[in-house]
Design a protein that fits this description.
Length: 528
């Protein structure tokens, strides 16, 4: 039997890896590798398949295998190439796919024996047949988009994944997004039509995870509400499913902020037990939203929208950007004011980055305004040359903004504002506290996680302890049902603040220009 090893390399540490949260929860990585588990499920049973996620285990380069499949985003590319070299040295064929290969097919072909561009569902089987016959190509491309309703989309092989090493598991319900923001590569990778699986299939995947004792699921969609009617049907099915489970599952996803306009949709999110939602707010500046083609945020009252989500006890994890062409130095103050006014406790502010494959990259390339590699981390560097300020000024002002928004006092104030908005009745029913108190739904692991968060602060510095007690007391004063929300906010804050305070910030990733160290900022308020 031919042996296939599927690998996802470890990503460089970033704000998205939530390292501190994972340490507190005593897991090795945030999200289980849905792509690998799906590819394994697409592999016919005549092959022996193994999965290695380097975030939670090391790679045995001398393992007995005939083929290595490596997947990753552009941030993984360096490590993907290193891994490929090691296996090629040992005479093992390497095949690469994923977002990096789709946006950089030519570069990828220099480093892997076989490159797959586009979605894998149809091509993977085709490649395996060719490989079996001994007559395979070095480049495969999916010319269209996978039809998630009719193309094969088997349940991911979670049995091959070390589930206990992850904070959350992932289920994908849709691909694509009906919008087309200039800086985003979702449309070039997955298209503007929101394609979805059947509700029944998603529920089967969720049930499969529930059987494996998973309690937190990330719906890894580009935009969960890309097709609102479908999203509502799915949410209703999740509510029904949760009512039958001994332990209610908790969910997190990504959606556009205009979800908050639809009261019925928001109530369904709450009743289905969503505890957080990543939304792209980007900027309070209407000029900048317009320049980024993010008009759907201009048509709503964004402050009110954030409040409408958070009042239900759903944390808004907000993607925000500085450095649009219409941004001058006033944008930093405007971002700070917006965060405070809306009570955003998990702001994720980055600098504008132009990834290859986006319309922004194409435009800035023509304008000669790209500088440095596009593989960088937008929370530490940028590859664009800003229009209304120098890059040096942008980075300096950006760091000053992070220093403020990731300070304990700022967090306390935004948390207080969020608490003032909470509708206790709305959150009481599905609260993790209610679950923990109910014998039918004894929620041991979530309770343990809460206790771990408290313990990590208790054994930390005096300022950390004070922050934890302040958040706890503000939560309890509102209602004991707000404790899980307070703990979730605290764990996000600690991860973000620690990441910021322990990084070095550069004008561009590979430039010899002087580093602007965040260390001095860190020393003042460091979380230890
Ligand atoms: S709404 Fe979000 S996912 Fe859709 S194009 Fe804009 S940034 Fe990308």
């Amino acid at each position: 039997m031919k042996k296939i090893l599927l690998i996802q390399p470890r990503p460089p540490e970033s704000i998205w890896t939530l390292k501190v949260s994972c340490e507190i929860a005593k897991v090795s990585a945030l999200t289980a590798p849905l792509g690998l588990a799906t590819l394994a499920a697409l592999t016919p049973s005549q092959y022996d398949v193994q999965i290695v996620d380097e975030s939670v285990e090391s790679i045995d380069f001398d393992i007995d295998c005939d083929l290595v499949g490596i997947t990753g985003y552009t941030v993984h590319s360096e490590r993907m190439i290193e891994i490929s070299k090691e296996f090629q040295k040992r005479g093992v064929l390497t095949v690469a796919g994923g977002a990096f290969c789709s946006s950089h097919p030519q570069v990828a072909q220099e480093h892997f024996d076989v490159v797959v561009k586009g979605e894998a569902e149809r091509i993977w089987g085709q490649f395996l047949e060719d490989w079996d016959s001994g007559d395979f190509k070095s480049f495969y491309e999916e010319p269209g988009k996978i039809d998630l309703l009719n193309d094969p989309s088997p349940k991911p092989r979670w049995d091959l994944v070390k589930s206990d090493r992850y904070m959350v598991h992932a289920v994908q319900t849709t691909r694509g997004c009906p919008y087309n923001c200039e800086f985003c590569d979702v449309v070039s990778l997955f298209g503007q039509k929101s394609r979805h699986k059947t509700v029944e299939q998603v529920i089967e995947e969720v049930k499969d995870l529930a059987k494996r004792d998973v309690i937190e699921i990330f719906f890894a969609d580009d935009n969960f509400i890309g097709n609102k009617k479908y999203a509502k049907s799915l949410l209703r099915a999740l509510i029904e499913l949760n009512a039958t489970l001994k332990i209610s599952l908790r969910f997190i996803t990504q959606a556009t902020l205009n979800c908050a306009e639809d009261e019925e949709l928001m109530d369904l999110f709450k009743r289905a037990n969503f505890f957080a939602m990543f939304v792209g707010i980007e900027t309070p500046s209407h000029e900048s939203l317009k320049s980024a083609n993010k008009q759907h945020n201009m048509r709503i009252d964004m402050v009110q929208s954030v409040r409408n989500i958070q009042k239900r006890g759903i944390l808004v994890v907000s993607g925000m950007i500085v450095g649009f062409d219409t941004d001058d130095i006033d944008i930093f103050e405007a971002q700070k004011e917006f965060i405070m006014k809306s009570g955003l406790v998990v702001p994720m502010v980055g600098m504008l980055m132009a990834p290859k494959g986006t319309r922004l990259w194409d435009r800035l390339e023509k304008e000669n305004r790209l500088e440095g590699p596009e593989v960088g981390d937008s929370f530490k560097s940028t590859n664009i040359i800003p229009k209304l300020m120098s890059k040096e000024v942008m980075v300096k002002k950006y760091l000053e903004l992070l220093e403020v928004i990731y300070s304990d006092d700022f967090f306390r104030k935004t948390f207080k504002i969020m608490m003032e908005q909470i509708d206790v009745d709305a959150i009481r029913k599905e609260s993790a506290v209610a679950n923990a108190l109910s014998p039918r739904r004894a929620h041991f692991r979530l309770t343990m996680l809460g206790l771990r968060i408290v313990r990590s602060y208790l054994f930390s510095s005096k300022t950390d302890r004070k922050l934890m007690f302040d958040i706890l007391s503000m939560s309890i004063r509102k209602s004991i049902f707000c404790i899980p929300l307070g703990m979730s906010a605290l764990i996000f804050f600690k991860s973000n603040a620690t990441f910021f305070k322990t990084q070095s910030y550069t004008l561009e990733d590979n430039s010899p220009q002087p580093e602007i160290a965040a260390a001095s900022v860190a020393e003042a308020t460091a979380l230890r």
